[in-house]
Structures are given as structure tokens and as C-alpha cells.
Amino acid sequence: MASRDRAPSQLPLELPSAPGFKREDFLEAPGNAAALALLDAYPDWPAPMVCLVGPAGAGKSHLAAMFAETAGALQVRAGDLTRAGVPEALVAGALVVEDLAAGAFDEAALFHLLNLAKETGAHVLFTARQAPSGFALATADLASRLRAMPTVEIAPADDALLAAVLVKLFADRQIPVDEPTVHYLLARMERSVSGAEALVGAIDRAALAARRPVTRAFAADVLRATSEAADEE
Questions:
Q1: What is the pTM of this model?
Q2: In terms of CATH, what superfamily is 23-153?
Q3: Which of 122, 169, 182, 197 yields a CA-CA distance of 20 to 30 A from 27?
Q4: Has residue 18 got a pLDDT over 50?
Q5: DSSP secondary structure letters along 159-187
């Protein structure tokens, strides 16, 4: 018979961490300084249409959300863009097109968007993991337009930024964490913002399930368990 003294284990519910997407929530670093300067310069851009390029988790969506708020821009994913929907997408005079990737959008719709944005003087901010100038496209005129589009690159996060990201991710989840724990994780985690997000999520779920505070020892156990699980896949 199970002991009545044993506390029931807590289910690790996936509760939203409610990350902030305001300017004050953005973590500035040398690698994203050019992208941040671009947003600050709006509407005095080098061209009405610009693309932010960087790896997953580099802050492109955060910057896009900041631009959308400043410019009153609508937001759409490149893969959801249709030719018929282009006029409505540009109705505000500013637009964010996220996740522009080769083979993942309608070429006719994007070409129509570029033409209509030029005609109306709209500002469009694209985000992509790779520069669109390198896309292999069937529409020659579209390829030429994308090659001419200015791009602003966001560099991969360095140690200082990753440490700040860890602190922010834990704070977003209302998890107190000390500096030694942050430095321990920083030295052993995947070297990317997306890796930090996955690790903090795993630690949060494990802490909820075990009903334990996040200490260096506990974080080490979770990191070891996630590494072993990845090795088995």
C-alpha cells in the first residue's frame, strides 16, 4: 500500500512563459546592433523593403514585433501569402513578412507584393534564416528583386548574450536562478538561443514535476538527462 505521507507528484503542465516583445525586453548585443539600428531609423531605411537575416532564435521575430508596433504594420508568414491577399496585407502601408525561405512561398504572390509595395510606397520588413539573394527561383524578375533587396544580418549569440538570454528565460517563467547555475549551463548547453529556450523549458518542466527549486545540481541532472535522451535518438 502506498504511504499516505508521500506527496503526489505534480504534472508538468505546459504553462505559457509569457515572453515580452517590447523594446525593453530586447537583449542588445554587438551581433544585433545593426538590426536594432535599422528599426530605430524607421522610416529612413536604405530602401523601403529590407530583410533581417539570422539563425533561429536570433531575435528576428522580436525585432519584427517591435517594428510592427512602431509602424502599425500587419504581420504575415511568407508561406501564407497569396496573390489575392496582397492588397489587404499592404493596407496599413507597412508589413512584416516572416520566415521567408526558399521553396516555402508562392512566387507569384511575393512578386505581386514587391510590385504593389513599390507602387504604394509601403515599407516591408522580411525575416529569413538565409539571405534571399541565394534563393533558386523560377521567376527571374523576382530573383533579381530579391538580390537587390538590402539585408541586415544578425550574428549568432555570443557568451554574454546567451547568459543574458538564460537569465531572461528563467525570469519569464518566474524561476529564481543564481549566477553559478547560469554559468554552469552556459558552459555545457547548445550554443544557440533556441538551445537555451529548449533547455530552460526542460528544466522548468522537470522542476514542476519534482516540486524542487532550480539549483546548479538540479540543472545538472536535467542537462545530463536531456543529453542522454538525445544520444539515444
A1: 0.74
A2: P-loop containing nucleotide triphosphate hydrolases (3.40.50.300)
A3: 122
A4: no
A5: HHHHHHHHHHHHHHTT----HHHHHHHHH
